[in-house]
Amino acid sequence: MPAKFRSTFFGDLDVDVTFDAAIGTMTHFVIGGQADAFVRPRSADALSMLLRRCHDSQVPFRVLGNGANLLIDDIGVDGIIVKLDHDCFKQTRFHTTDRGNALHAMAGADMATTLMETVRHGLEGLTAMAGIPASIGGAIRMNAGGKFGSICDSLETVTCLSTTGELITLARDDIRFGYRESRIAEPIILSSTFALQKCDPIAIRDKVKEIFAWKKSCQPLSDSSAGCAFKNPLLPDGTRMSAGKLIDNAGLKGFSVGGASISKQHANFIITNSNATSKNVIELIRIVREKVEDKTQIHLQNEIVIWSRDPEATR
To answer: HSE-up of 97 (CA within 13 Å, CB side)?
Structure first.
């Protein structure tokens, strides 16, 4: 982004801007390069104006949530990275409707914090999100979930901003959700509403504890990791095969490239140490996919999202 362009693009916008920002350290991997511009809008209006300006100037932009399933390439990312972490994007509100209890959550709200608020209110609906590190918007974007359910299960509406900054509200039935994906065309999720059911707070708390205990027993939660590295592949009979089991059967548990390695606790987790680079992780992903396909003829798809200036790095 040329210096002259930098001085004029953001000048009249109500945003915080950092140029050549080290966004790799903002991910759970804590590795990777810089972004041309890291922008934190202070209001929804400022975000809308920024989107229109990016659209008119053909400047690429991406939204950074909690960085939980994200890898930033060592060579960095071009364009603008948007972070919705000012208070106006983190608010949540409980209310009742003619259909029952509901939660309205802005996209920047933390999933873990929001979940515990529902537990304290004795409201069931987001329990399946226990142990999933994400922002609300990021969780919806990837339809986060696991063994116990997905975020789309209790979702009612999603309000987005279009590429030109216009508000668009979608009902749950208007959105096509799939396994670890949502077909939401608009680039930015702004807020959402969830339908919740009144339950015994102690029972919900115990259920959350049970999910956490199960995850702690089989996942490397204390290591630097982006969660599951690969999606569980869909078999011809319509069932899903455990990617971790395929990787384990290929003899890859503990296999490493530089400072990145396959977890010995769960083979679908890539963990990193202080010497790791993003190139190590990208190469390890390539090797795993190649060896699993050679052994089983099953092609693994990344669950980790890779951002890079080099399009080849993301394939």
So the answer is: 13
H-type alpha helices, the chain: 3-9, 44-57, 111-120, 136-141, 201-218, 243-249, 278-296
Of 188, 113, 192, 189, give the one whose Cα is nearest residue 151.
Answer: 192
This prediction's pTM: 0.92
- Pick from 205, 238, 271: which residue ends a domain? 205
Q: Which residues, including other chains, have CB under 8 Å from residue 97's CB and lie 6 or more apart?
A: none
Q: Helices 201-218 and 111-120 sit at what angle, rounded to 10 degrees?
A: 150
Of 13 and 217, the structure prediction assigns the larger pLDDT to 13
Would you say residue 1 has pLDDT above 70? no
CA pair distance 198, 138, nearest whole angstrom: 26
Residues 138 and 71 in one domain: no
Distance CA 107, CA 253 (A): 36
**Contact indicator for 66, 135 with CB cutoff of 8 Å:** yes
Q: Specify whether 275 is located in the same domain as 243.
A: yes
Beta bridge partners of 37: 19, 80
> CA-CA distance, 29 to 224, in Å (whole number)?
5
